[in-house]
Amino acid sequence: MFAFIVRRLIQAVVVMLVVAMIAFYLFQFVGDPVSIMLGQDATDADRIRLTAELGLDKPVVLQFYQFILNAVQGDFGISLRQGQNVSTLLLERMPATFELSIAAAVIALVVGLPLGVYTALRRNGSMANAILAFSLLGVSLPTFLIGILLILVFSVQLGWLPSYGRGDVIKIGWWSTGLLTVDGWKHLILPAITLSLFQLTLVLRLVRSEMLEVLRADYIKFARARGLTNRAIHFGHALKNTLVPVITITGLQLGGIIAFAIVTETVFQWPGMGLLFIQAVQFVDIPVMAAYLCFIALIFVVINLIVDLLYFAVDPRLRSSVGRGGH
Amino acid sequence: MRRLILATALSVAFALPTAGFAKTLKWASQGDILTLDPQSQNEGLNIQANLYVYEPLVRYDENFKFEPALATSWEQINPTTMRFKLRPNVKFQDGTPFTAEDVVFTFQRAAAPTSQFKSYVSGVKEVKVIDPLTVDVITDGPNPVLLRQLPVLGMMSKAWSEKNDVMLPQNFTDKQETFAARNTNGTGPYMLKSREVDAKTVYVENPNWWNKANKKGNVTEIIYTPIKQNATRTAALLSGEIDFVLDPAAQDVGRLSKEAKVVSGNEYRTIYLGMDQASPELKYSSIKGKNPLKDLRVREALYQAIDINAIQKAIMRGESVPTGAMISPQVNGYTEAMGKRLPYDPAKARALLKEAGYENSLDFTLDCPNNRYINDEAICQAIVAMWAKVGVTASLSTMPRATYFPKMAKRDTSVYMFGWGVPTFDALYTLQALIRSKGEGADGSFNYGSYSNPKVDALVDQIKVETDQAKRNAMIEEALMIHAQEVGHIPLHDQVIPWAMKKNIDVLHRADNRIVVEWVKIN
Q1: Which are the contacts of B125, defined by CB distance < 8 A and separation ≥ 6?
Q2: CA–CA separation, A273 vs A98, rounded Å?
Q3: What pLDDT digit, counting tens, does each position of B257-281 carry?
């Protein structure tokens, strides 16, 4: 077990180094922040000076080496757009993205799981088919379209919910949360729904197909023959066995949601890391882009590790095989 | 800070009624205010926001004439010295008095190597304190446009800057965020209340503003929120969450003028095409051995093949002002005669090309940005089609500003689109950067086509130092007319900027795309 974790951690470090290297190399082609920073009037002398100041005239390999050296000490440099510490910027924006992602994941699970079970149990009911048809919208409509539609209906026409921003937030230590104010909740609803729809559909259909398969298994037949109640069969036995693939997918999706809530954050002007990244790309704010990509790689790696550990907890078969070593 | 946020949250939760006298202006545009240090970024929105808090020595009134701000009067005591008398009894927001020392300090800081505001104090050799309320600004040579450089230079407090270690504007190699990026201390009509980078910046009225009695508007609080996405920005205005949008998307202007209010006006920015007239062979053309753009007939043909009125109608939806001049009408030196374009005449264009020997054989690449000017990409696509009609094959290359402007700065182009704003409202700014040949400092710094005419260069150099207004304007006219006759660039149009707002807001549109909030009235 311990060796397993250590192996995974080493893999994680390798993954992150590779991501950092690729990202850094790509950034040589996205443009030049110097002309944006200096504005219209700059002379050539100014440009040369600022390029040297930022270290952009050194060869790429040297820049990358310097970057890794600093990153290991937690120093990702200064944002070229805002003149602030990049690590501070990321930490400031992380609570917003996390709250949005968790809210979206919770909605996806809380709505997707029961609906998935329902559509599996009532396989050919008209309600079940309606739910399935509606869920198709979740995967086929692009996120920004859903977001704008929701804004149009609920903000502009009905005026029930606000169309952008995070609302009033309360700071607890360095974590700013919108969950403790009514205004914060109002602002959270539309973006969370927008972000959750894709995953909701995924969870729904996955649970449904997994349950259908499990319900066909022999041990379910024997349980029914034994006289167990439907409730015990469906939720005590069938559902537990469907959870393993669901956990995998949800875990991976959660990583994806955190990393790529970019579109939703842009549509709703949600001050999270995704929006920061997009703005950094447009401004060619290289330190922020590099730090963001490394951070995302870290998130994925950690989530995958947790998912793998959860397997051990949920599936007893895995526990015994690892315990026996190379059997 | 934490208590402030808690208090705000609680008051929202209890939904206290707002006081009747508080008039809040909530406004938005695409980008955020980059920094609160007034000299660290030379960018339109940043300058605008910092002018709520910091004030210049002189400022423009509604008609772009000079009006006293922190200086009550000025006098040219000799050709290189301008004496400013400062306003008495003005206090910074921390209570300290504004004196001549602060003026000297501000000029020095703006000229520091790490400042992005150097162009606004270019030509200033020294600023001397004569007495606590009088300064002399001494320039390298006679500078007829000195005053025009000053309306965006906000005065900073020397004492405050010393205390908070911000004697210099942000130095990126120091890797430290400076105090001035998040904190302010000015003399102006508004004070900073809170700043959440990329989320919300709030200003409140400065109760000790020296000009409070004459304030024309009634805004007591400003809440600025950036909203990047076009559709969301429009939705926020329509749903009533914000009162004003500086840059509504072009496709929403029609709807906004019906459901809200749109005020349009000319911007001081002229959009034009530049052409490489110096290379012996065009970089991006299949024609080898010669440069067709060196031939005046070819340049004229390209000019006359463009139907700018069709572009105005179909692409700009009426929101542009076609022009034959490289400067907009608000800029000093403009004359009606300059504004007249060469007529749209595709037949003549074909004839000229034939005469020059390029009938149906001229080709090159047209470079355009796709996220900088209003409808930039669409305009270029239209121009390419118009040129195709007269037998010119132009292939279009568009890219985002982050890659476009560095490419242009390297002069890596044959024909390109560009836009030039004139923050000094004086033609020299354009003549020097775009039309004069490349030289020292700002000379020809943006003349990427390398247009060059020694007579024009001589005129521009004289215009820099001529102090007699009438003589100077005559020289400006002459230089611009020579350039126009030689088709050094192809002017297209001046941009029109629509501002969108709720129906109960009165605002004066300005050609420099800045809202002067102390003039805004909320009814």
Answers
A1: B80, B138, B139, B140
A2: 9
A3: 999 999 998 899 999 999 999 999 9
Asked whether residue A193 carries a pLDDT value surpassing 90, the answer given is yes
Handedness of CA B386, B388, B389, B392 (dihedral sign): positive
- Tokens 């400003």: give the residue: B222
Closest CA in chain B for residue A184: B9
Strand-pair partners of B71: B86
DSSP state of A288: H
What is the Cα–Cα distance from A309 to B65, expressed in whole angstroms?
72
What residues of A are in contact with residue B200 (Cβ under 8 Å)? Answer: 165
Its pTM stands at: 0.80
Label residue B279 exposed, middle or buried (CB < 10 Å: 0-12, 13-18, 19+).
middle
- Shortest distance, CA A124 to any CA of chain B (angstroms): 41
Give me the residue label for tokens 């080709």.
Answer: B363
Question: CB-based burial of residue B503 (10 Å sphere; 0-12 exposed, 13-18 middle, 19+ buried)?
Answer: exposed
Distance between terminal CA atoms of chain B?
A: 32
User: Which residues in chain B have their CB less than 8 angstroms from residue A169's CB?
Assistant: 5, 9
Residue in chain A lying closest to B170 (CA): A83
- B393 Cβ contact list (under 8 Å, min separation 6): B362, B363, B387
For residues A266 and A281, give the distance between their C-alpha atoms in angstroms, rounded to a whole number.
13
* SS3 (DSSP) at B420: strand
Rounded Cα–Cα distance for residues B79 and B128 (Å) = 16
∠ CA(B380), CA(B383), CA(B388), 5° rounding? 130
Helix (H) or strand (E) holding A268: helix A262-268
pLDDT in tens, B25-46: 999 998 888 788 888 777 788 8
CB spacing of A41 vs B1 below 8 angstroms: no
Query: Whats the size of chain B, residue-wise?
Result: 523
ipTM of predicted assembly, 2 dp: 0.78
Furthest-apart CA atoms within chain B: distance in Å: 79
B71-78/B81-86 β-pairing:
antiparallel
Place of tokens 């069938």: A238
B367-392 in b/e form (b: 16+ CB < 10 A) is: bbbeebbbbbbbbbbbbbebbeebbb
Are B177 and A85 a contacting pair, CB within 8 Å? yes
Q: State the alpha helices, DSSP H only, in B126-165.
A: 146-149, 158-163
Burial A26-37 (b: 16+ CB within 10 A, else e): ebeebbbbbbbb
Give A133's contacts (C-beta < 8 A, 6+ positions apart): none
Q: Quote the CA–CA distance of B462 and A210 in Å, as a whole number.
A: 83
CA distance B403 to B357: 35
